[in-house]
Amino acid sequence: RVAVVGAGVSGLAATKCCLDEGLEPTCFEQSQDLGGLWRYTEHIEAGRPSLYPSVISNTSKEMSAFSDFPFPEHFPVFLPNALLLDYLRRYAEHFGLREHIRFGTTVVSIRKRPDFATTGQWNVVTEAGGKQTSDVFDAVMVCSGNFWEPSLPLQCFPGIERFRGQYFHSRQYKHPDVFQGKRVLVVGMGNSGVDIAVEASRVAAKVTISTSRGAWLLSRVFERGYPWDMILNTRLMSLIKTNLPGPLSWWLINYKVNRWFNHENYGLQPEKSWLVREPVLNDDLPSYILTGRITIKPGVKEFKDNSVLFHNCPEEEPIDMVVFCTGYLVSFPFLEESVVRVENKHASLYKYVFPTHLQKPTLAVLGLIKPLGAIMPVAEMQARWVSRVFKGLCQLPSQSVMEKEVNEKKKNQVQWFGLTFDEVLKTEWLVYLDTLASFIGAKPSVLGLLCTDPWLALTIFFGPCSPYQYRLGGPGRWEGARQAILTQWDRVLKPTRTRVPAGSSSPFPSLLIVVGFLLLLAAVIFGF
Predict the structure, then answer these.
(1) Which residue in 332, 325, 308 sits closest to 172, CA to CA?
(2) For the residues 235-251, what does the mean pLDDT come to?
(3) Contact between 322 and 145 (Cβ < 8 Å)
(4) I need a surface site. Which of 15, 167, 272, 317 has the fewest CB within 10 A?
């Protein structure tokens, strides 16, 4: 019996993967419906993520799909939140997940049983309709997310206590009409910060973004009009980035992101451009900067009564309203602190999933990761691995080996708004997926396929690393995986080619067939 906490993206994947392995999942969801982050509500609900209605996915549908359940071909390439929620409901319906979800049920506490050292079991206390119930589970998957407890470190902003205007965290934002005629300051330049700044600039008198670190900005529409992640997240690109000398690899990244526009000219150049950070996805910001609707400023030095002073800027900027886009805390209120150690607002977990110190590996945290790519395939791969660990089919390394890896990654942490971010966490989406897939025997063998199915091998290596690749073989093999890979570009172009008949759908030239073998052999020499 496995307890799954939360029925969002990670919770649905966890429930489905448990069923695939013959386990008995019970998913506890405190609200009355599934969807987690992607279920919009007009009112902010305690303990739940809060979404503004204009949110659109930053990753394309082909790269975001669960590995054995493609998005409908008529869905747009990047999805409004309502359509993504529709997809999650289709997924739950298709695999019969709803009958395993207890809605309106809050997890109050999860505690080790007295005989945990031998059984690995947990006491799970839940509450529904004002009544508490205690159950025993053999394992637990924590899928509660980390976008519900805002971080508002006001101590980092001198003078905020005397600021006479209005300020709030981005979690409270719903509609831009609150900014009508106001002079607005947005503190922080993540995806939410830029989205809110762009929306505010359409009705506000003036909008300023304050960022101490800058950011790489990507458009969803990338080279030759194709989705950014289907061009950047390929095995060829990953091979280049991980095998080139550091300076050459960073030069390549800088070159790629600056082809759209020169970040330095727009005041966006990251403070330490050689560090790989999560890029910001927005299609409008450069033009809004060009037209003066948005101004980029350095970090906040001090707030005054009706103005703000920025670092290295002598003049005060008059403002009426501040939106703090300063991230979220990592919190597990139903767990004892000794179970998942959160130090400096950072959870220490092996492969960002397993606590390293438990006597039995029967508790896992899913989705607590910020990859440079879609989260849904990552959460699903974590669930596939975890369910096989719970079943005893996969073994974890020794505690000392796991702790050594976690401590190594701690050395690469940086501080931002009082939050701790793990830079290693944000390096290679594909490498992380491949690592977990190799644990369960689902990593595709490009060289093996080259002998048996050369066109598929070339498509996998040079084309986008879509999640279907991880269903070609191994446990959970899906018969439709090959066809899904070979038709992925058809599903990308279907919703956009609405005036002209569809022609060749692959962005890769036919010359690929001729030179592909030579390039792939060269890749082998590099140690792929």
Answers:
(1) 325
(2) 82
(3) no
(4) 272
DSSP run (H or E) holding 137: strand 131-137
Residue among 276, 278, 282, 238 nearest 261 (CA): 282
> According to the model, what pLDDT value does residue 370 have?
81
Q: Which residues contact 153 (CB under 8 A, 6 or more apart)?
A: 326, 417, 418
pLDDT band at 426 (very low <50, low <70, confident <90, very high): very low
To the nearest 10°, report the CA torsion of 48, 143, 325, 433.
-150
Helices (H) and strands (E) in the chain, counts: 17, 22
Residue whose C-alpha is closest to residue 230's, from 491, 519, 521, 498: 491
- CA separation, residue 488 to residues 60, 319, 342 (Å): 11, 47, 40
Contact (CB, 8 A) for 469 and 444: yes
Domains parsed from the chain with CATH numbers: 2-148+329-434 (3.50.50.60), 152-219+260-326 (3.50.50.60)
**Does residue 321 contact residue 185 with C-beta atoms inside 8 Å?**
yes
Cβ(338)–Cβ(349) below 8 Å = no
Residue 159 CA neighbour count, 13 Å, CB half: 14
Is residue 450 a contact partner of residue 520, using CB atoms and an 8 Å limit? yes
**Helix, strand or coil, per DSSP, at residue 125:** strand
Helix (H, G, I), strand (E, B) or coil at 278: coil
Report the pLDDT value the prediction gives residue 523, as an integer from 0 to 100. 60
376 to 60, 62, 65, 126: CA distances (angstroms): 11, 11, 7, 27
Q: Find, among 522, 75, 448, 458, the residue nearest to 234 by Cα.
A: 458
With bands split at pLDDT 50, 70 and 90, how would you rate the model's confidence at 248?
confident
Name the DSSP letter for residue 14: H
DSSP 194-216: HHHHHHHHTTSSEEEEE-SS---
Cβ-contact 170, 323 below 8 angstroms: yes
Q: What is the pLDDT of residues 250-294, one digit of tens each?
A: 787 788 889 999 999 999 988 765 555 678 999 999 999 999 999
Q: What is the pLDDT of residues 434-463, one digit of tens each?
A: 999 999 999 999 999 999 999 999 999 999
- Looking at 74-187, list the stretches that DSSP marks H as alpha helix, in order from N- to C-terminal side: 81-94, 116-119
pLDDT at 505: 57
3-state secondary structure 309-327: EECCCCCCEECCEEEECCC
Q: How far is it, in rounded angstroms, from Cα 165 to Cα 261?
A: 35
